[in-house]
Design goal:
alpha+beta, 36% strand, 12-stranded antiparallel beta sheet, 12 strands, 2 domains, globular, 5 helices, single chain
């Protein structure tokens, strides 16, 4: 009789422990995705948006992948016009030709502004964005394919790092020549979804800087512009 009571008591304890464990497990919140949320810069209280950037598209997540913050809404849904003022750069809309629709299969976003600063530098800043199947056209037509088609020669190209605060953003860089002109072009891809889902879309962003004195001077002008667009980097790792 005593042995039976002990067995029943032990069984009751085991059942109680199982019920408590089950309740605790289901009450535990689901872990959040490993992506930095939109935040506010404490120093300026300016609303900031977080973006994933890389030098390659859907087909390759590279070690150059990084997260940056910008006061500009660069989502396909929110990007209706580029700002006329970016840092100390002043700009105005630049009319894109009809070839853009042919190259990118009528992209969801196609915007370009022509900017200048108080030091005599100029730059074209362009954004092209698409969702789903159309987004793949953004990776086929790049500056190092479209410029040579227009008679330019690629002098140099590759990935270059740009320091932003204590972090770093890597971009594609190309130096191009068509006598008597030279240009430095920086370009990269941007997602506001951290899973890089084609259905949610991607932007191809390009900055074209004419060379006035030297290639390095034009590059540094481009770096200054880029840091005005992305004043912060965010620590984040995919894996």
């Amino acid at each position: 009789m005593t042995r039976n009571l002990r067995a029943i008591a032990l069984l009751a304890v085991l059942v109680l422990v199982g019920v408590v464990t089950l309740l605790v497990t289901y009450a535990r919140p689901t872990p959040e995705p490993a992506a930095p949320p939109t935040h506010i810069a404490a120093s300026t209280m300016t609303p900031m948006f977080s973006y994933l950037v890389d030098v390659a598209g859907w087909y390759e997540i590279t070690p150059n992948e990084a997260v940056v913050a910008s006061p500009i809404d660069l989502s396909i849904e929110g990007l209706k016009a580029l700002p006329t003022t970016i840092g100390h750069w002043q700009g105005q809309p630049f009319e894109l030709g009809t070839a853009v629709d042919e190259w990118f299969d009528n992209p969801d976003v196609a915007l370009s502004n022509f900017y200048s600063d108080d030091k005599g530098h100029q730059a074209w800043f362009s954004t092209f964005g698409s969702r789903s199947r159309k987004s793949y056209f953004l990776f086929e037509h790049t500056p190092i394919t479209s410029y040579p088609a227009a008679g330019w020669t690629v002098i140099d190209s590759g990935v270059t790092p740009i320091t932003i605060g204590t972090g770093r953003m890597n971009v594609n860089k190309a130096v191009l020549k068509k006598d008597p002109e030279r240009r430095v072009v920086l370009y990269w891809y941007l997602w506001n979804n951290f899973d890089r889902d084609p259905e949610k879309g991607v932007l191809s962003i390009r900055l074209h800087v004419p060379v006035v004195t030297t290639d390095e001077d034009a590059f540094q002008a481009g770096v200054d512009f880029l840091r005005s667009v992305f004043p912060q980097t965010i620590q984040w790792r995919r894996f």
